[in-house]
TrEMBL record:
The keyword Methyltransferase applies. This is O-methyltransferase C-terminal domain-containing protein. Keywords: Methyltransferase, S-adenosyl-L-methionine, Transferase. It comes from Populus trichocarpa (Western balsam poplar). PANTHER family: O-METHYLTRANSFERASE (PTHR11746).
Length: 264
């Protein structure tokens, strides 16, 4: 997909966007990426199949590393598409009841999965209640701070006190780095910002600021997979909730120290 002419054409306008402002994709095609996907059936199919293929491999890795779905009773997947990702989660954790939440135009054609209810709606208006966890994969980077804050506030209102939001997205370094990981993340950042007029990749501190403003008491990066991080937004720390940090040096459960201080 990334080598398709539709995608390659936008890079020729990167310089113009830097000098003049604007979005490279829009400069190349005259419309934003969302509108273009509606217009070009061939590219829309290519885009969908590419994302589907990567999704499977990516989520398999997430489920191997991240254990934060353990103990969840009801999981709401906001922007869950056709429900296939939620189905992967529930296949591993069959005790979870799943709610796949997306626009009506998406869920009305979604296949049926055991243990999953498709619900139509707009996350910027409301989030279904009843879930003790909300999942958002590759959603937050599509929106500016104002929209994301609204989305997080709606998540907060929908959750019980012991609930959490599980976000999968890129967490960029606070300061410039030159290692391979940082360079790969920069490529993803350029790709996203060149396509989306509202898209934004965020640092850990930026996620923390938005989470705290939305009402969440604790925000933590749980693990890192394929240039993306799993970030948890905890509504309230109750019952000595254990953080289960993965690939971070300190754990704030019982031995609250430097890792916890950064979020205080």
């Amino acid at each position: 997909m990334i080598h398709d002419n539709v995608m390659m054409d936008m890079w020729y306008h990167l310089k113009d966007a830097v000098l003049e402002g604007g979005i490279p994709f829009e400069k190349a095609h005259g419309i934003n990426s969302a509108e273009y996907l509606k217009k070009d059936a061939r590219f829309c199919e290519l885009f969908s199949s590419s994302m589907k293929s990567f999704n499977v491999t990516f989520m398999e890795t997430i489920l191997d590393i991240y254990d934060g779905f353990e103990g969840v009773k009801c999981l709401v997947d906001v922007g869950g598409g056709n429900g296939s990702i939620l189905n992967m989660i529930i296949t591993k954790y069959p005790a979870i009841k799943g709610i796949n939440y997306d626009l009506a135009s998406v869920v009305e054609s979604s296949p049926s999965y055991p243990g999953i209810e498709h619900v139509a709606g707009d996350g910027f208006v409301t989030i279904p209640k009843g879930g003790d966890a909300i999942f958002m994969k590759w959603i937050t980077h599509n929106w500016d701070d104002e929209h994301l804050l609204k989305l997080l506030k709606n998540c907060y209102e929908a959750l019980p006190d012991n609930g959490k939001v599980i976000v999968v997205d890129m967490v960029v370094p606070e300061t410039p780095e030159t290692n391979v990981k940082a360079k790969s993340m920069l490529q993803n950042y350029l790709f996203m910002s060149s396509m989306s007029p509202q898209g934004k990749e965020r640092t850990e501190k930026e996620f923390e600021t938005l989470g705290k403003e939305a009402g969440f008491s604790h925000i933590r990066v749980a693990c890192f997979v394929c240039n993306f991080s799993v970030v948890e937004f905890i509504k309230k720390l109750v019952n000595n909730y254990c953080c289960s940090y993965i690939s971070l040096p300190n754990c704030p459960c019982g031995c609250i120290s430097e890792a916890d201080d950064q979020f205080s």
